[in-house]
């Protein structure tokens, strides 16, 4: 009963969603679309089901999962306490790409929270995800549906590339929208703290609740991250990737040097600059004039470099404002923090 038979091609095709929901209820792991990236879901109240997520992804067991819900009612069973600031945020951003950290209730699987005293919860803004969770009628623990360390999936075929044969099914809802994962916000600390930048920007949060800060680990690699997942190399393409701060001419020169060494080169750019570069593989990732389009395509483009079999990738850099903060965070992780600055 592998994915090929289980792909649900039409989000309006309710019988297939019911099939996926019943797999979840039976303790199976099923991939599904959200507005950020595809998630690999399992019943958060079932230890054995949750273990299947870790096994399929090859995910370290000390990295906790986000619990996905479809209604505020489901939150009561998960959070021991709901800070006032969280109420405002849920009102403003749920359903949406914002994950909130709550003190957890007794009885929540240790497998989900990796032994922490807190639980991460979000309500995804995607009709298929919401219908699936409602139909399954259980909270759904779901990390991104990629093999650990690979770029997150923004298309059902990405999930199949990584997890075919390892999970019970994939619900195909087409391309996800935002393209980078949700913002993870700890609202139990005195000043709410972004543990992972994502689909909801710092600026948007601050409009609703005032000052928010970025976890120190996001600026300083040596600091201990509060979000365990942030310490792992993530989103990595197979070829080494470097982010270039400088002119297009400078980036092109780097490409020439690598080509002279006999390497197959890749350039990650945007539609505006695509025609400028001469490299073996030049991929446009959205439009620089609209960073949301760059975020939406990033993981797909990283996977395409893998498929093209390049030896080295040079990427343009982007402004770190708004959605650019999440975009640059993911790009820097994909590059293992390799940055080349023009002198
Ligand atoms: O957009 C998303 O958030 C996607 C979709 C599927 O919803 N999910 C996702 O899950 O990105 P995952 O597992 O790839 O990332 C979850 C992040 C990790 O960095 C993890 O360490 C952090 O959330 N996290 C989970 N529970 C936490 C907790 N109790 N405290 C701090 N960080 C937590
Ligand atoms: Mg992930």
Commentary on this structure:
Mean pLDDT is 92; it is low at 1-6. The chain has a 10-stranded mixed sheet, with helices on both faces. Strands 13-12-14-11-15 form a 5-stranded parallel sheet, sandwiched between helices. It is of the alpha/beta class. It contains 13 helices and 15 strands. The protein is globular and about 60 Å long. Strand 9, helix 9 and strand 10 (213-214) form a beta-alpha-beta unit. Magnesium ion (MG) is lined by residues 143-144, 152. Residues 143-144, 152 line the site of magnesium ion. Its EC number is 2.7.7.87. Its main location: cytoplasm.
Ligands bound to this protein structure: threonylcarbamoyladenylate, magnesium ion
Structural class: alpha/beta
Oligomer: single chain
Series of H and E elements:
HHEEHEHHEHEHEHEEEHEHEHEEHEHE
Low-confidence stretches: 1-6
Mean pLDDT: 92
Shape: globular
Largest sheet: 10 strands, mixed
First-to-last CA distance: 56 Å
The total count of strands amounts to 15
Strands across the major sheet, in which order?
Answer: 7-1-2-6-3-5-4-8-9-10
Percentage of helical residues?
Answer: 25-40%
Q: C-alpha Rg, in Å?
A: 20 Å
Give the amount of beta strand, in percent.
Answer: 15-25%
Query: Total number of helical segments?
Result: 13
């Amino acid at each position: 009963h592998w994915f090929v038979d289980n792909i649900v091609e039409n989000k309006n095709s309710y019988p297939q969603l019911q099939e996926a929901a019943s797999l979840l209820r039976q303790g199976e792991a099923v991939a599904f679309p959200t507005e950020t990236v595809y998630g690999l879901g399992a019943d958060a109240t079932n230890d054995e089901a949750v273990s299947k997520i870790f096994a399929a992804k090859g995910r370290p067991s000390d990295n906790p999962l986000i619990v996905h819900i479809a209604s505020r009612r489901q939150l009561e069973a998960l959070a021991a306490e709901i800070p006032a600031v969280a109420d405002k945020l849920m009102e403003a951003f749920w359903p949406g790409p914002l994950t909130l950290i709550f003190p957890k209730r007794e009885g929540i699987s240790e497998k989900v929270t990796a032994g922490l005293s807190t639980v991460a919860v979000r309500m995804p803004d995607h009709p298929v995800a919401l219908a699936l969770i409602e139909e399954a009628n259980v909270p759904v623990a779901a990390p991104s549906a990629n093999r650990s360390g690979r770029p997150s999936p923004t298309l059902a075929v990405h999930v199949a590339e990584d997890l075919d044969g390892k999970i019970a099914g994939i619900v195909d809802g087409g391309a996800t929208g935002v393209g980078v994962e949700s913002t993870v916000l700890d609202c139990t600390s005195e000043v709410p703290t972004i543990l992972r930048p994502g689909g909801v920007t710092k600026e948007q949060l601050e409009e609703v609740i005032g000052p928010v800060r970025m976890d120190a680990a996001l600026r300083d690699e040596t600091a201990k991250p509060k979000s365990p997942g942030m310490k792992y190399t993530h989103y990595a393409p197979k070829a080494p990737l470097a982010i270039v701060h400088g002119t297009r001419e400078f980036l092109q020169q780097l490409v020439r040097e690598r080509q002279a060494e006999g390497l197959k080169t890749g350039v990650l750019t945007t539609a505006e600059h695509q025609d400028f570069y001469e490299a073996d593989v030049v991929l446009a990732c959205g439009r620089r004039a609209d960073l949301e389009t760059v975020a939406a395509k990033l993981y797909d483009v990283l996977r395409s470099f893998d498929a093209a079999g390049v030896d080295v990738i040079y990427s343009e850099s982007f402004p770190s404002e708004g959605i650019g903060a999440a975009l640059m965070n993911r790009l820097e992780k994909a590059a293992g923090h390799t940055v080349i600055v023009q002198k």
